[in-house]
Amino acid sequence: MDNDVWFQREDPIELIHATYVMQAPEGGTAAAAAKKLAVGQTTGTWVDVPGVTERMRREHEGRVIRVVEIPAVDVAQPDGTRPDYALMTIGVPAANVGGDIPTLLTTVLGNDASTSVLAKLVELQLPTSFHETAGGPKFGLSGMREMTGVAERPLLLSMIKPCIGMTIEASAEVFRETALGGADIIKDDEVLTHTTNSTPVERVRAFRVEADRVFEETGRRVPYAVNITGRPDRMLADATACVEEGATALMINYAATGYGAVQMIRDAVDVPILGHFAGSGPFIESPASGMVGAIATGQLPRVAGADMAMILTPWGGYPLSEHTYRQTVSALRAPVPGLRQTLPLIGGGVHPGMVERYVGDLGFDIALSPGGGVHGHPDGSRAGAVAMRQAIDAVVAGRPVADAAAEHEELRRALEAFGTGE
């Protein structure tokens, strides 16, 4: 590999471009650190070993695509001041990873201290061939609109609350009340999978009865995303059993199971998958390592096959930056060759008073996902769902939610209980 690090270089090999921010190294150059990462994560190690051929280097060795020092000062400073950071892009031959996300992450996030550098992955450009092999969503945003029959407004998704400990009968009643109030999709909470009170299959059986009753009364089919998160063998068994019992969607916490588990389940069954981010904080919180939230909770769940994906927001109690919030939604919805769009699910502290903010930020192609903002309504879960729909309908019509509250008791009571979000 030569020392050319100008980003417009041509290459006959199809590459994945991984871009990092790193602190400028002491006693070395950013270009040398980039080369160490590029070679060490592909064909090399900390010492030369026999057997590496020119063909292997040409077809499988990582390339340094560019290195940009920050601040970009071209003239050496008299006082010896050096750049603080560097932006570096390495090219990984796509043939090294196929469409396998675990292999991709092993490659671009580093393996051990001898061959990696302390850097944070900030951008991942994947070729169309990777998207096509990895698969992406089967149904995606448009599929969820078709399944729910909701074409031109934000969807309303709610989860069963209390999170855990209820009997199946009590949970089924909450499902029924929430569905009758106007929820378009209902899911399990992320901490609920197998408990002494219920299993995923048992919940599917019980909730399917209520979903059928709601359909008979309203003509609306309300999908239920049952949480099957767990060890791989049990997840696969649960996925198959739940679909056989009539499950309409599955939920997986990809941060705990791995993105590859989402790919596995997507290929095994033919229902939509809801991806949850719980536990992804360690992936994104360090400024010096890991990856940005738009990759961890946006791009990768989409590539793995999540048709819907819960995301973090700056207003749900977690100190997420507004830039990451907007960038993550873009990673889920932006047009990408070979991938369907994923429906962003906006959760964490959502209630009717927040509808104007989120729709103003992100438009209609989202699902607002309140838990406590529905079930904590003073008049119960049905009234809470009704209030959310009233707020959504007001915003879609271009009316202030506060004005609509003067006409709707459920919405007025919700705003009194939860506030206006200002």
Characterization of the model:
This protein has 422 residues and is of the alpha/beta class. The protein folds into 2 domains: 120 residues, RuBisCO large subunit, N-terminal domain (Alpha-Beta Plaits), CATH 3.30.70; 279 residues, TIM Barrel (Alpha-Beta Barrel). It has 18 helices and 12 strands. Strands 5-6-7-8-9-10-11-12 form an 8-stranded parallel beta barrel, surrounded by 8 helices. Strands 2-3-1-4 form a 4-stranded antiparallel β-sheet, covered by helices on one side. Strand 10, helix 13 and strand 11 form a beta-alpha-beta unit. The N and C termini lie far apart (56 Å).
Overall geometry: globular
Q: Portion of residues in helices?
A: 40-55%
Q: Tell me the name of the CATH class of the largest domain.
A: Alpha Beta
Q: How many angstroms does the end-to-end distance come to?
A: 56 Å
Task: Report the total helices.
Answer: 18
How many beta strands in the DSSP annotation? Answer: 12
User: What's the architecture of the largest domain in CATH terms?
Assistant: Alpha-Beta Barrel
Number of domains: 2
Which parts are unreliable, with pLDDT below 50 for 5 consecutive residues or more?
none
